[in-house]
């Protein structure tokens, strides 16, 4: 695939890699049958490394204006390609040298704005989990022209309050990055907001992010959260949250 390929050429190239055997496996794995969370999602049968290779070949100079063509495509892997292109573009603008650079700030804000505009196109857990912490989560920690910390919180609050499961998942999984950078406040806020969510995918996401917060920031902070909420949280959430604790302690929490 040529480095200066258009979105249309990228789609044609990815379609040429279609693998029907792998496609059937992925459609089962991502629960695309009627009544399941991924119902209606369509796959080409590409593995994630193949999609990442397309992103690398296109390069970070791929025009931002072309990305929506990928994000709006019917194929799951093409949409993933679009989201990973936004990740690559965003990460290029987050080096220490560019953190406070006015042009880099403007470009990061453009990418975040596009990401949020097309958030519903991330309509399965992998599309969320491979992108949201690297774009939205990182943006929460960086200078922006869009607003102060209250504005950033409002952005994530709106995702959390959305009726869309995938936007809700974004609001908690974006905290993976903030916890990695030593700030537990985002994780604790959205873990509490989603504590009584009814969907298993959110139970897993909340527990996972609590575990990461404990590992990256403070196990004592995690224990304090569990002391307050362990009796009311779903068992799946609790099980995920305590995964890195010693076996004896895990048994105590589960009992």
Structure commentary:
This protein is mostly helical. The N and C termini lie far apart (55 Å). α13 runs antiparallel to α14.
Morphology call: globular
Radius of gyration: 19 Å
Give the terminus-to-terminus CA distance: 55 Å
The overall pLDDT average reads: 96
Number of strands: 0
Summary keywords:
globular; mainly alpha; 64% helix; 255 residues
Task: Give a short synopsis of this structure.
The chain is built from 16 helices and no strands. With 255 residues, it is an all-alpha fold.
Q: What is this structure's SSE topology?
A:
Elements lengths: L6 H10 L3 H10 L18 H11 L8 H5 L4 H17 L9 H16 L7 H5 L2 H8 L9 H13 L3 H9 L1 H6 L4 H9 L6 H17 L2 H11 L5 H7 L5 H8 L1
Helix pairs in contact: 3-5, 5-6, 9-10, 10-13, 12-13, 13-14, 13-15
